[in-house]
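Meet our chain:
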Amino acid sequence: MSHIDANGGWMPLTMPQLDFWEEFSFHPDKPVSTVAHCLDIEGDVDGDALTKAISETIRESEVLSVRFLQEAQGGDPLQCFDASRTPVITHIDLRDSADPLAEAKTLMEADIHAKLDLRTDRLSAQSLFRIGEKRYLWYIRAHHIIIDGYGLTLIEQRCGQLYNHLRGRGEAGKPFHSFASFLAEEQAYSTSRRWEADRAFWTQYLDASGDLPVLYRGDEDYGAPGLHHHHELSATFCGKLRETAVAVEIGWPDLLVLFAGLYLYNTLPRQPTGDREVLTIWLPFMSRWGSIGAYVPAMLVNILPFQLALDPQETLRAALARNAGILRKQRLHGRYRIEQMAEDKGVAKGSRFFFSPLVNVLPFNAPEFEGCRVTRHILASGPGDGFNLTFRGEDDGRRLTLYVDADPSMTGQDEFNRHKRDLPAFLDHCLSPDAMERPAGALWSRFAQVSR
């Protein structure tokens, strides 16, 4: 990686950015990795203050104004912050429309599915729809090469802070760090002792893991429609989950990951490694370890391979504690990039690991805007591989919704329907009063008996 000038200028791409660039080079005519959120803001909305807060937040979020350059065919691209590329808010007043909300959704969907050329196009769009006297929709769209979902959440929270300040509540707060300073911090990590220790951990872990599935970029199929389902988990379930998390001293997001992992362990093919069978589950990790990276919108999310194994003699409580300990240890080394792990394992250029099954828990509250009710809608989060489980909800574990997504070429409709039916019921079964002291290996067979 070449030297990074903290004052700006042309700078190299990070490893995840290079991965998205390679994806674009294989699929330049497809809108593959678009991310988009929409905030529904209703109430005593000050339109002028909202516009001002969004504009200032965009200005601070330098990554939204990044421009790429590839000087030679096949050469590594470069990037720079270009103030002339800063997104300008598009104001769209739909109050006179017969169905303002439907028309706004149509416009947003059209933008999400439009082709985006990383070499020439602006990489972010911002629109503010007015769909009622007291109701606005703030639409934020970008390419995954510059930002991840948590980065968009940071932008939303920062905008809420600025809006509240303009309305006389609270301080303006500190602006985001510069994009160049973030890249410099990432470069410093890549030459640090911490990087060497992280590499040693993952080398040892993956050497004991057997072969991980690999996907050739040219085989990625982004055109076929997938199978999708969502299920709102009950308030009773959410309450029991939080209570159980306290009782077993495991954070509720990790407990949910492990319960979902137990379901997948019993319903998907496992891989024999030595004297046991394991299931590799891919887990997104925010990876915001750096003091700068923690407060800058950018593409930082990592994906970690977690190998779930069960000892038939263990109680569920013991199995959860052991695997939760592995999760914590992995995250201590979670800054080490999955793209680097692939390179270390000899995965060829033009290929990557196949991230399936994947389990993602996203516990993020919608931002607060003074005098308003705010609802966040995730409109696009990029493509997924194979089979994916996503849990979205409040940061305290309330109002959880389960999303199930599958590739129909790998999961048939009947099998998908079984997952839709059995997964929520199994999660609830894991929270039954006597489950913790029963053998973890017998949990599925008991569930199968009581669910007939």
User: Anything to note?
Assistant: The mean pLDDT is 93. The two ends are 58 Å apart (CA to CA).
